[in-house]
Amino acid sequence: MAGVTINRIQQIINSKNIIRIMPNVMAKQNASHTYVYAKNKKLINSTFYKILKSFGTYHISSKEDEINIATALYGSGPAFIAFLVNAFVAASKNISPNSKVNERDVIHLFKNVISINDSSLKLEKFVQSIASKKGTTQAGVHFLKSQNLKKIMYTTLHRAYKRAKEISIEKQVSK
User: Fold this and answer.
1) In whole angstroms, how far apart are CA 119 and each of 64, 113, 115, 140, 162?
2) Strand order in the sheet with 56-60
């Protein structure tokens, strides 16, 4: 329940023993990055850790607002990434309607790039290693930069974060 604070949950169920978590849809595949917040850190015990590990990786938050950030980044993020990959797949098919672009191959391209580049620094160096002066990659990257893709991604995440905070306020008002 995005945006529902521990205080609100405590009021609804009349208990102080609350751990708030933000997993994502990939928890079923043990691939979620789950954020966890509890006012009482003693509630986060070995049994809880065992359950949490079954979701994938996790982060114990020191502030409840980090759950709102996690909602935007890790809760909504998989949908944003899927949208971008799907747009890339559609564009690859449309660039030459007569070609037989295999969408599975295009999706594997994304997986492969990420699997060998596990940091933003590595990704930046990766781009630089491919982009030759006045080449095809440089032309495409230049266009992406001209469209301010970084700002678009920031705005996407920021709007999701703001909405999580708004939901929190709405849920408090609707007591």
Assistant:
1) 26, 11, 10, 21, 26
2) 20-22, 32-37, 56-60
CA-based radius of gyration for the chain: 20
Estimate to the nearest angstrom the gap between the alpha carbon of 119 and the chain centroid. 15
Number of neighbours of residue 95 by Cβ within 10 angstroms = 9
Place of tokens 């329940």: 1
pLDDT along the chain (175 residues), means of 10: 84 92 95 95 94 96 93 94 95 85 92 94 95 94 95 96 87 63
Contact 123, 150 (CB under 8 A): no
Per-residue pLDDT, 32: 96
CA geometry: angle 94, 134, 108, nearest 5 deg: 40
> One-letter amino acid identity for 91?
A
Each domain of the chain, given as residue ranges in start order, spans 77-155
The pLDDT of residue 167 is 85
What does pTM read for this prediction?
Answer: 0.86
Q: Which amino acid is at 123?
A: L
